[in-house]
Amino acid sequence: MADLSQIVKAYDVRGVVPDQWDETTAELFGAAFARVTDASAAVVGHDMRPSSPGLARAFARGAASQGADVIEVGLCSTDLLYFASGKLALPGAMFTASHNPAQYNGIKMCRAGAAPVGEDTGLADIRVLVERWLDAGGAPSNGQPQGTIRQRDMLEDYAAHLRSLVDLSGIRPLKVVVDAGNGMGGHTVPTVFAGLPIDLDPLYFELDGTFPNHEANPLDPKNIVDLRNRVVETGADIGLAFDGDADRCFVVDERGEPVSPSAITALVAARELAKEPGATVIHNLITSRAVPEVVKECGGAPVRTRVGHSFIKQEMARTGAIFGGEHSAHYYFRDFWNADTGMLAALHVLAALGGQEGPLSQLVAHYDRYPSSGEINSTVEDQFNRTNAVKAHYAGREGVTIEELDGLSVTGVNWWFNLRPSNTEPLLRLNVEGCDTASVERIRDEVLSIVRAESERDTEA
């Protein structure tokens, strides 16, 4: 019997199939989802993993058993599922484990209008029901007639909606390399880019949930080596890499150099603020300080939040923000039901690049202002004590401020860093930014010497 404590996370369900969960469990999740969201209808989609179609269909059966009419959109990216939820005003479920290895699968759930279902917004209640029904051997009827299950392809509608939000009609022709990592970008990119003045060079567009070429996680530098080489070899204007479920997009410039997601956040924010001066833009606390600077320079109001999509989406809804960005390459749009879509961010970058004659490196230089360490992960036995040791080291220093909104954030005269514990692993994540490289390296080494004083091993991402 499934141990839900191992697979129900803060924002989604995720675990190894069939070791940790299977289609029987998925069917119970579907029934519980229909109950908790009080859904008379729902939309269900899935990625290209071998286990995804069966799990998604089992979930649909479970929802239908509670009287919900289910629309199966089939193969889709996570942001296509959010589109379907928003467009149809229905709760939805996406079967994917994003960039995790092939043996994993999971469920990302939302209420109507793509509103997130997390631990505090329904997921804990769903878990309680599934655990109860696992013990009882099945989900009881709620007295409603059996719901229907039907199929509907929404890819063309999704692509049309995205293109309606960004004007690409007047851009110069661009040569674009896209690495889909054998994930869902291989399904969505050709349709979204159709008819645009883009010479598309596809890398790994074959849908293959075993990920034969590299992990579908573009934030790990080793997974964009092929993309970087292809851009340089072909003289392309830009490279784009999508993760497994294609909700995140990572950008490479014409030199094959990665572009910081913070710089992309600032660029897109500037474009959105040009449409609506004075609007609010959300950014999390590990994005570059360049982001709030650019937002203010463009007449907008920056709002800082904790890391994580639930916090971003809550603030988007609370403030009516036009846009939100995270350093993990998640980009949120008010015109996309406050949900994240890397594809829409990519279209903004293409529009900005194609609307002027200079190369991408020149375009983003204005938004990429400060040296940074990137995220450095350290494995530690005691996250709390190591963090407190770092805090004690900087406490009381002249010109230094300390806050604990999300982990430990310390700001000096010409540098800042954030040290956060992972929610799922024994890791501390360090991000450092400064006005010069020497300051970044000095603070990085200083903090790591304290963090790793009792570390067993370390990894860098």
TrEMBL record:
<dbReference type="InterPro" id="IPR005843">
    <property type="entry name" value="A-D-PHexomutase_C"/>
</dbReference>
<dbReference type="Pfam" id="PF00408">
    <property type="entry name" value="PGM_PMM_IV"/>
</dbReference>
<dbReference type="InterPro" id="IPR005846">
    <property type="entry name" value="A-D-PHexomutase_a/b/a-III"/>
</dbReference>
<protein>
    <submittedName>
        <fullName>Phosphomannomutase/phosphoglucomutase</fullName>
    </submittedName>
</protein>
<feature type="domain" description="Alpha-D-phosphohexomutase alpha/beta/alpha">
    <location>
        <begin position="6"/>
        <end position="121"/>
    </location>
</feature>
<dbReference type="InterPro" id="IPR005841">
    <property type="entry name" value="Alpha-D-phosphohexomutase_SF"/>
</dbReference>
<feature type="domain" description="Alpha-D-phosphohexomutase alpha/beta/alpha">
    <location>
        <begin position="156"/>
        <end position="256"/>
    </location>
</feature>
<dbReference type="Pfam" id="PF02880">
    <property type="entry name" value="PGM_PMM_III"/>
</dbReference>
<dbReference type="Pfam" id="PF02878">
    <property type="entry name" value="PGM_PMM_I"/>
</dbReference>
<dbReference type="Pfam" id="PF02879">
    <property type="entry name" value="PGM_PMM_II"/>
</dbReference>
<dbReference type="GO" id="GO:0005975">
    <property type="term" value="P:carbohydrate metabolic process"/>
</dbReference>
<comment type="similarity">
    <text>Belongs to the phosphohexose mutase family.</text>
</comment>
<dbReference type="GO" id="GO:0046872">
    <property type="term" value="F:metal ion binding"/>
</dbReference>
<keyword id="KW-0597">Phosphoprotein</keyword>
<dbReference type="InterPro" id="IPR016055">
    <property type="entry name" value="A-D-PHexomutase_a/b/a-I/II/III"/>
</dbReference>
<feature type="domain" description="Alpha-D-phosphohexomutase alpha/beta/alpha">
    <location>
        <begin position="264"/>
        <end position="370"/>
    </location>
</feature>
<dbReference type="GO" id="GO:0016868">
    <property type="term" value="F:intramolecular phosphotransferase activity"/>
</dbReference>
<dbReference type="InterPro" id="IPR005845">
    <property type="entry name" value="A-D-PHexomutase_a/b/a-II"/>
</dbReference>
<keyword id="KW-0460">Magnesium</keyword>
<dbReference type="InterPro" id="IPR005844">
    <property type="entry name" value="A-D-PHexomutase_a/b/a-I"/>
</dbReference>
<keyword id="KW-0413">Isomerase</keyword>
<feature type="domain" description="Alpha-D-phosphohexomutase C-terminal">
    <location>
        <begin position="375"/>
        <end position="448"/>
    </location>
</feature>
<keyword id="KW-0479">Metal-binding</keyword>
<dbReference type="InterPro" id="IPR036900">
    <property type="entry name" value="A-D-PHexomutase_C_sf"/>
</dbReference>
